[in-house]
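Query structure, 243 tokens:
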């Protein structure tokens, strides 16, 4: 079995954090750090990607037109798709859309998934294989519909609960950092380091949301208009080698 290395520290930290928490989940199962990451009771697993989606939309607004959070897909008219898991609901939505990101005039659609690599369904997989499977599941849900009905391009954004990114997410944020650095005339390494840091904090907060089951006061929106990425990275002592 190919163990998921790099997740052990996160798991140990969460186990320590559960010492003062209840021993039993509201769903009736024994409560521990791993169960907290997958339990759907309370809806925390479903909403934990909201902050990542909002941050991604905020960054896209700096370089794209018509950025929308939770855009509705066009209704279907007896279309049939290859995959049985394709989303055929007329109320279907994705997390973010933006016009002219991958191609001029074309709308790009993004849907986010944050998964726990220590969940039972992923333990037998390498981290690379787990990312690939989650990306494929998202693509089967939306890609064909968006391509043929909405005439757009779909990109699945897959993360682990501890901050890892799938290949498609890496490609998106690398492209985003490249365009942002050119527009802001700041080093791409600084933009990417800042972006990685913000995404990591968002994912940590989502893990704590699942663990603690409570919400803090509303987060202040991020303003990128006058952001000096290089100065922020230096002042925050963010290691740019991690980009």
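Result returned for the query:
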């Amino acid at each position: 079995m190919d163990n998921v290395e790099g997740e052990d520290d996160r798991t140990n930290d969460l186990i320590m954090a559960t010492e003062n928490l209840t021993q039993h989940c509201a769903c009736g199962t024994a409560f521990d750090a791993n169960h907290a990451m997958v339990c759907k009771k309370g809806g925390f697993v479903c909403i934990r990607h909201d902050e990542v989606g909002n941050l991604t939309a905020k960054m896209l607004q700096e370089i794209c037109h018509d950025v929308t959070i939770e855009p509705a897909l066009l209704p279907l008219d007896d279309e049939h798709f290859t995959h049985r898991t394709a989303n055929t609901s007329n109320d279907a939505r994705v997390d973010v859309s933006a016009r002219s990101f991958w191609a001029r005039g074309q709308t790009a659609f993004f849907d986010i998934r944050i998964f726990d690599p220590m969940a039972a369904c992923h333990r037998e997989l390498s981290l690379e294989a787990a990312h690939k499977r989650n990306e494929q599941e998202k693509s089967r849900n939306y890609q064909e519909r968006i391509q043929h009905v909405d005439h757009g391009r779909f990109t699945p954004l897959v993360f682990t609960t501890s901050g890892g990114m799938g290949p498609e997410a890496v490609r998106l944020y690398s492209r985003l950092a490249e365009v942002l650095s050119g527009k802001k005339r700041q080093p791409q390494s600084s933009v990417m380091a800042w972006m990685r840091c913000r995404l990591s904090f968002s994912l940590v907060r989502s893990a704590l949301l699942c663990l603690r089951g409570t919400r803090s006061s509303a987060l202040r929106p991020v303003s990128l208009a006058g952001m000096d990425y290089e100065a922020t990275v230096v002042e925050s002592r963010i290691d740019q080698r991690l980009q």
